[in-house]
TrEMBL record:
GO terms for cellular component: cytosol. Residues 3-92 form the Thiamine-binding protein domain. SUPFAM superfamilies: MTH1187/YkoF-like. It comes from the Bacteria. Belongs to the UPF0045 family. This is MTH1187 family thiamine-binding protein.
């Protein structure tokens, strides 16, 4: 499964990069395939391991912020691996033809 998620601290002012970096650090340390862009972090793995990482990413932000917003989108497709790469490669293949 692939999960794209965004963790945003609320009540800490406009500069939230430090808090977001804490959440991304949890993802990177997980060892699961992942990508981070300006709006979301995507992570790929089995249901329990992905959700554990999301939960820990929220917890690390929650430890420093009075409120946390979580936006999550999941592609649950058993048996598919390397979807983070293959889905983008498919789109790129269509764009180049």
């Amino acid at each position: 499964m692939i999960v794209a998620f965004s963790v945003t601290p609320l009540g800490v002012g406009e500069d939230v990069g430090e808090y977001v970096a804490d959440a991304v650090r949890v993802v990177r340390e997980s060892g699961l395939p992942h990508r981070t862009d300006a709006m979301f972090t995507s992570i790929e793995g089995e249901w329990d391991e992905v959700m554990d990482v999301v939960k820990r990413a929220v917890a690390v932000v929650e430890a420093r912020a009075p409120r946390v917003s979580l936006v999550l989108k999941a592609d649950v497709r058993p048996g598919v691996t390397d979807g983070l790469t293959s889905k983008v490669e498919t789109v790129e293949r269509y764009l180049s033809s």
